[in-house]
Amino acid sequence: MSNWRAVPRVSERSSWARGPRRGEGGRGYGGDIYGALSPGLREQAEGSVEELVNKMEGWSMELQRHCAEDWNQFASILIQCLSGESKKDASQQQFQVAWHGADCLSGVSGREGQAPPSSAATDFHRRRRPMLQIVTAGLEAQDAEIERLRTQLEQMSVRASRKRSQSQDLFTASRLRSVEAAAEEAQRRHAAAIASTAQAKDHLAERMEQLVGAECRRSEHQRLLGERRAQKVAAAAGLAALQQQQEEVLQGVVSARQSLLKAEQVWEQHAEEEIQGRWRVQSLLQEEEARLEAIAPKYRRQLQESQAQVICQPEMREEHAEQVVEKLGRDLPWETESELQQQRRLQELWRRELSETEHEMWAAQRHCRDQQRKMTLALASCRRRVETEEVQARAAPSPLVAELEEAQLQFHKIQDKMRQQATKQKVNDAFKVPVFQQRRTTVNEKNREWHELAALLRRCDALRAQEAKQQQSLREVQEQREALAAELSEQKRQVALAGQRRSAAAHGAERLRREHAWLTQECQE
Fold this sequence. Notes:
The chain is mostly helical. The chain has helices spanning 10-18, 31-36, 39-81, 87-106, 119-127, 129-312, 317-331, 334-395, 397-427, 435-524. It is rod-shaped, with a radius of gyration of 72 Å. Keywords: Coiled coil.
């Protein structure tokens, strides 16, 4: 029993298994490894060691609990063996057995400084020696079992410490390898990031140069757009002048049409007057014929008498003829002469009015032809100008739109590359802590560049919207011109119809003139 060794305490075992802590500066177990580890890995290694130590402490506590249970079982067996004696003897025996068992457990055969046992105890030992031998043998067996368990516990603790040290060595070696690999990978990524950053800066400088060139081209396009806008303003002024000319032409056409309507009304009035005069002349001729028929018998009778007198008196033939003529002149009604004179006056007045109307009609026709020729020339020049402006407007925006689309595509590519670079930068942030301050300035510069690019794109969109608005205004002007052309064609058709009516009126007037000439000739005959 003298070779019993106390089991080390939990704090002693844990400190012995862990080795020197951080900051102790010892060269004990794992000191250089702990010094080489990072703080995170060091905490993880200490956590795993604490877990193993806690497991070993649990095993030792369980072994102590088993030993205590065995001791309690031995005490209960001893009490049962002594239960057959009297209470006094039992209490004395319990005291002696406990005293002897304590001596046996402590490895001392007697107690120094105390009196030897009494005769009752000697008798008790003599009578109960076989039982004590059995109990002693059992206790020795228990001691042997406890010693065996203690040796097994020591062996297990040694093996556990070895395994723990091996596992810690393997763990630290693997962690060191992983940390070294991670450090190499971080250095490689850092170098790649630096190279990509330099490449991105170069690419960004190229893009900035391209953007500066695009800005120059945009200013040039703005200047061209300003010139084109001025040309469009001039074209609009020309169109306004053309519209004013067209309005004047329309007013002239309207006035010509009104004059034609007046001429037609005059022609109709003259035709009605001609018809009325014709009927009046016919009625006068009929009246004259009736008068002549009424006068003819008397005239024939007088003529026969005069002829008879002339035959009878040849010398008075001339006087008789003169008298007959005077008589016939006196007999002719003066109303017929006045009617003929009035008819002649009306005919002369009608001829004068007809000539004036013809002159007015010819002047209106000449003015209408001149206005139509001017309108045709103005419309042709306006159409040519519009076609040239449309061709220029269609051809001019194409390079601007292509450049804008190319700049927008390049901006999207740059934005995608910057997003990828930002993602890579976020991944590499864990290995590049000092780069954060540098990244702030670069990010601000990138944000400023992005804002400039966004402003350029907004300007391009505004220019595109302005160009679309100008094209819409051009389309509206073209529609107005088409409407004016349609109106002019309608006016031309109306003028053609008026010319047809005028030609028909002229033909009717010519026919009436021929009939009037024939009537006058018949009247004169």
